[in-house]
Amino acid sequence: MRYLPKSDSESREMLDACGASSAEDLFAHLPEEARLKRPLDLPPGISEYEIVQYFRERAAENADGYASFLGAGVYSHFRPVLVDTVAERGEFLTSYTPYQAEIAQGTLMAIFEFQTMICQLTGMEVANASMYDGSTALAEAAMMAARATGKGRLLVARSVHPEYREVLRTYARNQGMPLEEFGYLEDAGALDTEDLERKMDGLTGAVIVQSPNFFGVVDRVREAAEIAHEGGALLIVVFTEAVSLGILEPPAGADIIAGELQSFAISPSYGGPFAGIIATREKFIRQMPGRLVGQTVDTRGNRAFCLTLATREQHIRREKATSNICTNQALIALMATVFMTVYGKRGLRELAEQNLAKAHYLASQVKPRFCGKFFNEFAARAPGKAPDAINKGLLKRRIIGGLPLGRFYPELADSMLLSATEMSRRADMDAVGEAFA
Amino acid sequence: MYPENFRYTKEHEWVRVEGDVATVGITDHAQQELGDIVYVDLPKPGTRVTRGGTLGSVESVKAVSDVYAPVSGEVTGINPMLAEAPEKLNADPHGEAWLVKIKVSTPAEVESLMSAADYETYIGAEK
Amino acid sequence: MITKVRPHLSQNEPLLFERSSPGKIAFQLPELDVPAVKAEEALGEENVRGSIEGFPEVSEVEAIRHFTRLSTWNYAIDYGMYPLGSCTMKYNPRVNEVVARLEGLAWAHPYQPEALAQGSMEVAARLEAALAEITGMDAVTLQPAAGAHGELTGILMIRALLTRRGNPRKKILIPDSAHGTNPASAVIAGYGVEHVPSSPTGVLDLGALERVVDRDVAALMVTNPNTLGVFEHDIMRAAEILHSRGALLYMDGANMNALMGIARPGDFGVDALHLNLHKTFSTPHGGGGPGAGPVAVKKELEPFLPIPRLKRLGKRLTWDYKRKHSIGRVRAFYGNFGVLVRALAYILAHGGPGLRKVSVDAVLNANYIRKQLEAYFELPYTAPSMHEVVFSDERQAKQGVRTGDLAKRLIDYGFHPYTVSFPLIVHGALMIEPTETEGKRELDHFIEAMISIAREVEEDPKTVLSAPHGTRTSRVDEVMAARKPVLRWR
């Protein structure tokens, strides 16, 4: 087998060295009743060519060559070629977590740059070296806020991504953290701050909002911050469309930002792997989960980087750890770092401007449901036409339409969520406009 | 090495009582085991503690050790030096780098703690 | 004498921000085919940001040089062996990278109509079935993003089952040899943790277990083979004890590389386990992730699996959300799909017989190392090793040299260190797992290096204590990094 580098004679030599007559001897000590007494019921191994064929067939069973207006937490963006060039290098792809700093300076410095860029983008003082994804980053941020304030109640906006809220519920329920939702304004699609104020109390550890929110609306973060802080809670702000940070002012008054970086060159890949981040103020550093890379020196005085503040983590703190997380999304974060480098200061702004233009053009062809300001995503409805029917028509033109919102918000069953990015073409947007007319 | 006027716990804390104020720290043995200390986590003044309960923790790069209260009472002060210079705890654990001061609620508790001689025997046996 | 490496010039490289120069670009976007929009009008002036202070401004050439130079400062599996115990650092097959990037799979949006996602769903279904067969379990979820995430998911399901039976109970039993994620996950699931000491031979102490399993115990979390690389020969008996008292057995499947085709957790009493696709199933570590931590369970736990579940309806697959006993979601969308593709490609390449050979070779490699090194390093537990072997630094400690120092010296010989100071039940542990993708030559190099280092400890300990000597940086000051954390460039 091509991945097994021992010849029969080498195996024989090694068995002799072990004093075993056959490899089976090495398993002789296992209890009989625990042994598997038949071969695994899996077909024999196949050739490289057949493997590629198998997956090509699967890829062909998916949508291929369709234009898509789906967003809802996963966005279509150009992926600069350099991202793969770098990520495919064996030194990045096949290396381990940088616990041995002397032979992992490449990974460590790249993560340090990543942490820096996330701070620059979000306006925060410190960022970690990535969480599994945006949804678990939010759950971790909530637990962090509970630790920092000593208060476990959570107030979450309904305009936060529905699946993120589900994940939050799973984590909160098992930590005995009460969770309540507050609503959005029917006309603007933005936070109903009066509802938030009514539900706010002295037991609340965190108020959680998203901006741009699930409906694509740039939300009333400043107001939420005031209400949260007045009540002695922290404000957690979530983002799912990282490109928005190229043009939108980072959320003012946020104590913790939890976000998803999939937009930065990560393939949608049917939902993962992605990379989440947590960014916060220095005073919360010790409550922060996940890996952190710090700058230091070696014995000769050269600048060097290493993992630090590891005593927060599970391998030292064990049951008292800030989190159980071990893996971070290093390779994904590296790809995002390359993306941020390729676009850079000017490019990320230009990219965001293009997204803004495309989405607003699309909006001019259909009717946005909400009047709130939006970035590259918005809800829309066609009077008398159900979203499913519109989408069925669009599929015939090899266009995947927006996400019918009835799936998550029964009150919005007449609307769909449309996202347009720099990849959206005018002709396809015109087709959507026609389908809505 | 180990001051005669201190008392010692099995978890390697020392305590010196003057009137109803107890000064608490960790022993030289403890700081040696931990290695270079990077951070000290102390309770807020006003916190009530019971003997044997967690007072805070001391961190090195690769380990964390909880610090336990040798006596019950109320924390009246914490050592301001340790936030800026945790390394003092390695240099002078019995003197400059005390951790907290506690207003003692049950003075008799001190009696059951180890003397310097007993503590030295104890750590000798641990090796 | 060091034969595997010799010095070589590596390029210096500053931080991106130190390389930047105003106005340099590495991108070009197409012209807009729609009218441009004024940001202040569309978003409101107060919402528009100024420029991103300090963000990189470099050309494409500098970008490529930057990351390429950085990459040369790393060790990697492609360079040589990682003898890291418990990590299973095996070869990452390149065909897996190709198939994960196929457009139809890579561009699939999780919300695209099911009729246009059957390919992805079929991959997931096929992987679920394969993992169920390999582990001897009844049902699999691919949702968890990593091992620790899988642990949490598994424990949450156990909690849900016990709650349904009337009492979730209060604590999880964890051996003192366990990986740190085990107790951390238990706590996040809302349980208390009680440690079970190992027996003098390093395995589960049945007597101790008998004494502590009561009505408050929800489950025992066990790793098998355990973190010493030793098979828990009493595991079926342990399962009986737990089951007879209404508790369950959870297995940390990190060491599955020793068991494929040899023994199946479902056959030796396990109720739920997680797998690490980035360990046993070759998906790349990528410097620390991504991974994936699927969870396999017995029938009784199936109703509690996270939603949605893959379901077959005639010829097609669909996502089933109508599962009222489910623990809910543990992450958005369906799982680390890109990682799942790679794992399935790996399984297809080996097939049933191939996977068994993987485990056989992994165990042979570890035993070969054990045999060659046991004269030089202390073996604290003498039970037969499976895919990994754990020595202690006891002999070398007499010269004042500890496992961490030996590890640093190993770097000078051209290897990545083994796992240092874990498991905790061995003082000064050296945990070595070669995996099956190492040939005899690489293993012999490693053995020679370790023996040479053992000699150096006797003859010239200073060299070992101040190692590594040949790397770009010498030992880094971790104390300074922790005392005065600098976590970003300014």
Polypeptide structure, described:
The complex is a heterotrimer of chains A (437), B (127) and C (490). Chain A has 437 residues and is an alpha/beta fold. Chain A folds into two domains: 67-79 and 345-436, Aspartate Aminotransferase, domain 1 (Alpha-Beta Complex), CATH 3.90.1150.10; 81-338, Type I PLP-dependent aspartate aminotransferase-like (Major domain) (Aspartate Aminotransferase, domain 2), CATH 3.40.640. Chain A has 13 helices and 14 strands. In chain A, α12 (387-396) packs across α13. The mean pLDDT of chain A is 95. Chain B is of the alpha+beta class. Chain B has one domain (7-104): RNA polymerase II/Efflux pump adaptor protein, barrel-sandwich hybrid domain (OB fold (Dihydrolipoamide Acetyltransferase, E2P), Beta Barrel). Helices cover 20% and strands 35% of the residues of chain B. Chain B has a six-stranded antiparallel sheet. In chain B, a hairpin with a 2-residue loop joins β2 (13-18) and β3. Chain B starts with 6 loop residues before the first strand and ends with a helix. The mean pLDDT of chain B is 91. Chain C is an alpha/beta fold and 490 residues long. Among the domains of chain C are: 16-71, no CATH class; 95-349, Type I PLP-dependent aspartate aminotransferase-like (Major domain) (Aspartate Aminotransferase, domain 2), CATH 3.40.640.10. Helices cover 36% and strands 10% of the residues of chain C. Chain C has helices at residues 16-19, 39-43, 60-71, 94-100, 103-106, 118-135, 147-164, 181-188, 206-212, 235-244, 337-373, 394-397, 403-412, 440-459, 461-465, 478-483, and strands at 139-141, 171-175, 192-196, 217-223, 248-252, 272-274, 295-297, 309-313, 316-320, 389-392, 419-420, 429-432. Chain C has a seven-stranded mixed sheet with strand order 1-7-6-5-4-2-3, sandwiched between helices. In chain C, strands 10-12-11 form a three-stranded antiparallel sheet, covered by helices on one side. In chain C, α4 (94-100) packs antiparallel against α11, α6 packs parallel to α11 and α7 crosses α8 (181-188). The mean pLDDT of chain C is 96. Chains A and C meet through α1, α2, α3, α4 and α5 of A and α2, α3, α4, α5 and α6 of C.
Observed structural traits:
heterotrimer; A: alpha/beta; 7-stranded mixed β-sheet; 14 strands; B: 127 residues; alpha+beta; OB fold (Dihydrolipoamide Acetyltransferase, E2P); 6-stranded antiparallel β-sheet; 3-stranded antiparallel β-sheet; globular
